[in-house]
Specification:
The protein has 8 helices and 7 strands; from the N terminus they run βαβαββαβββααααα. With 218 residues, it is of the alpha/beta class. The longest helix has 18 residues. The protein is elongated. It starts with 18 loop residues before the first strand and ends with a helix.
Length: 218
């Protein structure tokens, strides 16, 4: 059945060195601030008061905290905005101002006041899995994330790094694109990857890669 719900386009956004604004500085806002910092963003917080975590980040010089209420001028030079004030009127003000300026804006837990949503995320270094219900059921997305966290363990971060190192030299050894695609089809085996511990990844994956290259050479 067709609905009027937004049809979100899933992307991964590079926030490194981009100015991001968080309006509000409570516990929810603090989690958003940390996530933005982990993505390399330059974070500014606007709020008259802040929880301890936000105040400490400001004291350490990791974020810019403006001790006041939101003003539209706070959007100048901003790439992305998160609103988490707990005040419905302020949240609406933030959304209207940001959206009309074509700035990415997310008002936490108010999908009708968002032009983007944040998926439930599993992060294993460079390996990331995002799960979204399109804002319809965040609880379901969290439950699926919890299930996938058990399926894809922390060692997948090191695994991705090893695969990246293999990829760097592969074009020289396999100049033909079709052969490289065949190589990856042979190499990638989730059951095999799941059987590895972190200290086995380098040797075992390299050994498997050489076996795959030998099979393609036959």
């Amino acid at each position: 059945m067709e609905t009027d719900s937004p049809k979100y386009y899933p992307i991964c956004v590079d926030l490194n060195r981009r100015r991001c604004l968080v309006v509000g500085a409570g516990k929810v806002a603090a989690r958003k601030v940390v996530s933005l910092l982990e993505a390399g963003a330059l974070v500014r917080v606007v709020s008259p008061e802040a929880v301890k975590e936000v105040a400490e980040l400001a004291g350490e010089g990791k974020i810019d905290w403006q001790h006041r209420t939101f003003a539209e001028s706070d959007l100048d030079g901003v790439f992305l905005v998160v609103g988490a004030t707990g005040d419905p009127e302020v949240n609406r003000q933030v959304y209207r101002a940001a959206d009309s300026a074509s700035i990415l804006v997310n008002i936490v837990d108010q999908p009708d006041l968002c032009n983007f949503i944040v998926p439930a995320l599993i992060r294993r270094g460079e390996f990331q899995i995002a799960i979204s219900s399109g804002g319809a059921s965040p609880f379901l997305a969290r439950r699926v994330r919890e299930a996938l966290e058990q399926r894809f363990g922390p060692h997948y971060g090191e695994l991705v790094r090893e695969l990246s190192r293999i990829r760097e030299g592969l074009k020289e050894r396999l100049p033909d694109e079709t052969r490289r695609r065949q190589f990856w089809q042979l190499l990638i085996d989730l059951d095999f990857f799941d059987s590895l511990s972190v200290d086995q990844i380098h040797a075992k994956v390299r050994e498997r890669a050489e076996e795959c290259l030998s099979r393609l050479a036959d």
